[in-house]
Amino acid sequence: MANKTDNSLQVVGLSKSFGDKKVLKDLSFTIPQNDFAVICGKPGNGKSVLVRSIMGLETIDVGQILARNQDVTDEDPGSRNIGYIPQSFALFPHFSVRENIEYPLDLIKATKQVKDESVVRVSELLKITDLLDKKPNQLSGGQKQRVAIARGLAKETDVYLLDDPLVGLDFKLRERLIDDLRLTQEKLGVTFLYVTSDPLETLQLAKTVLILAEGRIAQQGLLIDVYDKPLHLASLTTLGFPEANVISGSLQDTTFESTIFKIKTSLKNGSGAAVAGIRPEAVMLGKQSGAITLTASVTLLENLGSEIVAYLDVSGTQIITVVSHRDASALNALGTKSATISIKPESILLFDSQSQAMIGTGAALV
Amino acid sequence: MNDITFTIPKSSVTVLLGPSGCGKTTLMRMIAGLEKPTSGGIFFDDINVTKVSTRRRNIGMVFQYPVIYRGTTVKRNLELPLLSEKLEQKEVESRVRNVAELLGISASLNTLVEELDNGTRQKIAVGRAIAREPKIILFDEPVTNIDITAKLELKRSLKEVFGRLSQTIVYVTHDQTEAMTLADQIALMQDGVITQCAPPSEIYTLPNSQFAGWFLGNPGMNFVEKKHLKISATAISAPALFSQSINLGTQASKVASLGVRAESIAVSSKEISGSKPAQVLRKSLGIGGQYLLDLDYSGVNLKARVPHALGKEVSNQVWTTIDNDKIIFFDENGSAI
Q: Which of A122, A341, B175, B279 has the smallest CB count inside 10 Å?
């Protein structure tokens, strides 16, 4: 019997191919106990294959999956004891909400008492107590998804896999469900492994984050560490909203040069192709001392209410920045047609074009 | 739909915004003549068109999925709607050229539509709607189903087109960012009623209802219920949240809640004069690296938006100052006072 307090989840050396196509490449990671871990990757990077492999719905080529420190690689999905909350809320239309929630418990022939207790527990958690006797077609989209989450939590366990459960839901529902999910995980004190391609969801939910790129874990760490110190280009571009700016160029000794700027770097013997990564918030409006100054034309101003996302063009290179409505001087510097922008060299991260690894930072103006 | 009366100004962009099921699509379909109102009328330039067929209303429409002819070129697609207009060939050519230029698809005129991404196909659908030069052009969620990679360019193009067209544009979406980006005025809908009709910045900063305050913004507005407020004959105070009391005159007695946006709460890691203490329950990252703090003021929970460096630095306790000018008061029906 596994130690009751150990609810970690581990993947060791997992590979999976479909024909010639290697989808997951020697993946290893550990999700510590009671973590809210988010695997974030752009579409087509192997997220759903990874989810299916952990659940046991996909046979893997090599590797091991450990739940609670026990090897479950050869166990069938039902005996892995991993809670599963799927992407689409396929509720049984002819069942009531209560019957839908009880369904996974019926499969394991739970007693009526266990079922009743479970239904009370999860319906209070997700605030759907007054919906229990309704049928799915009487519910709104958000209510259906809350029922689906409740059903996923009904079978009491301590490790849950959430497969992009908010995808396709509208903005306001997601806002509410994000709060619900965070509170639920805190209250239950269980391990959540959450998979998504949405950067805002990742930022709002994750304690730790795993960046999945081209079938590999590019970086794992505390959310803030990965955000502030991306070690891989995918960490920078996958995590963050709006998406970070990526500008191609080349290194020569101590300098980096692109078509729109040239800077001194932290490197001594740089050479070859490299990319500069710049977070939108590092692009400042107006002329600032010690910064690269560029003249940009404005191609679109997206109004988020509290902020404006400005899509700019500097001689054919797109630069995105974000301006708070509170920042009057920045708003003044942002015309509707053109703007002057400043980028501090120190805020520029440099990545090797080939390996995509972080290799240095900007250091000073040339 | 329940007793809606509103006017869409000429040559402006009006966005019908609201959650699913609010009636925005039904309202647009009635403007188009695809749906009949049970009672009431629809007027174009003071002319009652309620009984006029869609075909004769002189409107253009753009739908969620690009409506274009497959197996033919972009140019042919733009010409076809003009054939029934009995125009001279020169006029047809000039309109096609202008529309293509406006949408930035001049270089693709001889391309087969199959070869284009669905964002460009949607641009062709827009071109087909505007080439006939109708008085009113209706857009039903034209960006929603476009591939993520083509969305930005389509929005950019729509913004450009809307700025240059003199027609009246009605645009339906559930996406608040799209609405605030494209609209001259937003008609916010809930349960078949238009609850507020105003320019984007006004509807965001001065919501006339709790619904508008909640619906716009990510996160929506924070609300504080009456039981946490001290209401005197003429003034409101909330000792846990802010130190001053706010004079509302005779309106004070109607107050049932107050609302404040996350960015209107100034946060400091140290106590400053007039600030109030709050516990940080949770913090998370958000737009442009800013932090969102879940704060607790002895039982009142508010979300505050703070810059990256400050958010990173703060731990359990912060001190906040709420900008009184940014507080909105609501009555028991949720209407702004």
A: B279
